Amino acid sequence: MSETCCLKCGMQVNKVQLIDRLGSEPNIVGSIHVTTSHIIFKAEDSAKEIWVPNGLIGTVEKGVLSVLGTPLTVKCKHFLTLTFLITRDKECQDLVDTLNKCGKPVNITDVFAFENKERNDDIRLNAEKRGWDRFDWAVEFARQGIGTADDRKWKITDFNMGYKYCDTYPECLCVPSATTTQTLIGSCKFRSRARLPVLTYFHRPNAASISRLVHFPCAQPLTGFSARCVEDEMLMDAIAKTNPSSSTLYLIDTRPKGPKGTRGYPGFPGPIGLDGPKGVANE
């Protein structure tokens, strides 16, 4: 006889048979566990386990009650189909309702991501927490070597504090130490949504860096591809000078090629900055 017991985040049904749909193997007796993130089948007499994320549950179909029990078929979005045989019809119906609720939540707050809770020590601090506070840009840049291995050629600035200039960039930015606030403001005004070139990755061994700059349609110049901006070119030149082992700064245009082999989408010109500052090459 099967048993049902409620868990904190779902339900559990014991003495369930997993039916081999091809009929070549005997049915496997086990238990079904439904949690906030997965539906799990655990066999009783073996280590066999089947884990299916709730988000992959497609349809749940309840069959006709027979002498052996009620069949339950779970069809998943990644083409996996599981068929169970449950002794009691009431338990089968409860499981159908639970799986439908997990697979198709009515409220977004019912999904697993919202089950995450603050740690006990955070609760005791009684401080307001934001998810982004768990990631500290200053610590990350220090890990990469900014302030030590970079020979002080880069600096961390609060230029974008409160997302004053660019609402799609972090508040903490890393820019060349030689740049001024006016240079950064000028570059922001020149580029779409104020997405100026800033440090993304610093490579310790040779002081090479990757700066976020050209990625359609993120940081294209507002005034067209033939326009020039003194502040923007000064910032690019400063980035080029941060690497003493190379005198060339490569601008890589990652937009797909158009019908005629040019970069970008139909109606957009080719690579940016063909007449850019000295020491800047385009790829």
Structural write-up:
The structure is a single chain. The protein is α+β, with helices and mostly antiparallel strands. The chain folds into two domains: 11-108, PH-domain like (Roll), CATH 2.30.29.30; 137-242, no CATH class. Helix content is 18%, strand content 27%. It is built from five helices and 14 strands. The protein has helices at residues 89-103, 120-125, 137-144, 181-190, 230-241, and strands at 4-7, 10-18, 28-34, 38-43, 49-53, 57-62, 70-76, 81-86, 154-157, 173-176, 198-203, 208-212, 249-251, 280-282. Strands 1, 2, 3, 4, 5, 6, 7 and 8 form an eight-stranded antiparallel sheet that branches. A two-stranded antiparallel ribbon has the order 9-10. The longest helix has 15 residues, at 89-103. The chain is elongated and about 85 Å long. The termini are far apart. This is Myotubularin phosphatase domain-containing protein. Belongs to the protein-tyrosine phosphatase family. Non-receptor class myotubularin subfamily. GO terms for molecular function: phosphatidylinositol-3,5-bisphosphate phosphatase activity; phosphatidylinositol-3-phosphate phosphatase activity. Pfam families: Myotub-related, PH-GRAM_MTMR6-like. One of its GO terms (cellular component) is cytoplasm.
Global structural class: alpha+beta
Major sheet characteristics: 8 strands, antiparallel
Task: Compute the number of helices.
Answer: 5
Number of strands: 14
- Estimated radius of gyration: 29 Å
Order of helices and strands: EEEEEEEEHHHEEHEEHEE
